[in-house]
Write a structure and sequence with these properties.
The complex is a heterodimer. Chain A is mostly beta strands. In chain A, 0% of the residues lie in helices and 49% in strands. Chain A has no helices and twelve strands. Chain A has an eight-stranded antiparallel sheet, with no helix packed on it. In chain A, strand 5 and strand 6 form a beta hairpin. Chain B contains no helices and eleven strands. A seven-stranded antiparallel sheet of chain B has the order 5-4-9-8-7-2-11, with no helix packed on it. In chain B, strands 1-10-3-6 form a four-stranded antiparallel sheet, with no helix packed on it. In chain B, a hairpin with a 4-residue loop joins strand 4 and strand 5. Chain B is globular and about 45 Å long. The interface between A and B is large, with 41 and 35 residues.
Chain lengths: 169, 155
């Protein structure tokens, strides 16, 4: 059977933690699709994805967000961050789970900057937002590590990062 | 689909995957340029927050009755053009509410109004998803429309 999305690795929090890291990502695919599931959080907070060992002082990531808040649409540009934001018009919620899909293109190359498209599901049964985001990391490093972070708050038990590889023919 | 129908339902969905991915190529019968496709899980509705842009205007909206997951081509669109898109039901076997991400692109390469659509949904139900309905918000889906269900299994 042909495989398009090949499961690579899944990391799930067994206890609350400030970060969920997936390391040693195989460099044998062309693109990565990353599925993130965050159960209801203890404190409403922003979710972000750090790349490799980007420190808090890094200024490598920029992104543009297109969002709907249920009554209108808008866009926002932000740059010179050490992370890709995963939400803007609504935070992760204390009652409902959130889900995110990130598609990293050409992640293993060491001669190009890294681009990503992020879809965020932040619907809260009458509030919340839907968001579509493009981003770029201004660094040629191959992506070997992803770190999901809750901006100083805890990610809850059951937070999950799953990585799929897409290989070109 | 070999004949027009209001909806398509996938039943008895195996509980062996992590996410469900629904892809479609559809066209509706309603006398409009484009309109909504909705989903119902286990026969019940949820909520969606979505936006779409027709190229001349952008709209944000919310639905707490139907779960609108896509905007697709309809009766006024150029002949033989179909909309395409997909939506993902995350953690469909889990015991919490089920988030949904969606997008669609019913382009017709003409002056006829179409729209790029993106959305987030929530099926606020702790039950595992065992059936997925994809339906036209008005009228029918035409014969020749196709809807596909995939299971996405994590490592």
């Amino acid at each position: 059977m042909a495989v398009t999305y090949e499961p690579v690795v899944t990391a799930t929090l067994g206890s609350a933690a400030t970060e969920l890291t997936v390391s040693n990502i195989p460099q044998t695919y062309t693109d990565l699709v990353v599925d993130v599931f965050v159960p209801p959080v203890p404190v409403a907070t922003n979710i972000a994805m750090y790349i490799n060992d980007n420190s808090s002082g890094s200024t490598e990531c920029g992104f543009v967000t297109l969002f709907s808040n249920g009554s209108g649409v808008g866009s926002q540009r932000s740059y010179q961050h050490p992370y890709f934001a995963m939400n803007y018009a609504a935070t992760a919620n204390t009652t409902y789970p959130t889900a995110y899909t990130l598609h990293f293109f050409q992640y293993a190359r060491t001669d190009v900057r890294k681009s990503v498209i992020i879809m965020s599901s932040l619907d809260y049964a009458g509030s919340g937002a839907s968001e579509l985001r493009e981003g770029m990391r201004n660094n040629n490093e191959a992506i070997t590590k992803l770190r999901l972070n809750a901006s100083g708050q805890n990610l809850p038990v059951g937070t999950r990062v799953s990585i799929f590889g897409i290989a070109k023919a | 689909m070999t004949s027009d129908a209001a909806s398509v339902t996938f039943s008895n969905i195996p509980q062996t995957y992590t996410n469900l991915l629904v892809k479609w190529v559809t066209r509706g019968t309603v006398s409009q340029n484009a309109y909504y496709i909705y989903t119902a899980l286990n026969g019940t509705a949820g909520s969606t927050t979505y936006g779409y842009s027709s190229g001349s205007a952008a709209v944000g909206d919310r639905s707490t009755g139907y779960m609108y997951v896509v905007y697709t081509s309809a009766g006024y669109a150029t002949t033989n053009t179909f909309g395409t898109g997909e939506f993902t039901i995350h953690n469909y076997t889990g015991s919490s509410a089920k988030p949904i991400t969606s997008w669609s692109a019913p382009e017709t390469n003409s002056a006829t109004s179409q729209a790029a659509f993106w959305g987030a949904g929530l099926w606020n139900n702790a039950a595992a998803v065992t059936s997925v309905l994809v339906g036209a918000s008005s009228g029918n889906l035409v014969a020749g429309s196709s809807v596909y269900l995939y299971g996405i299994k994590h490592a």
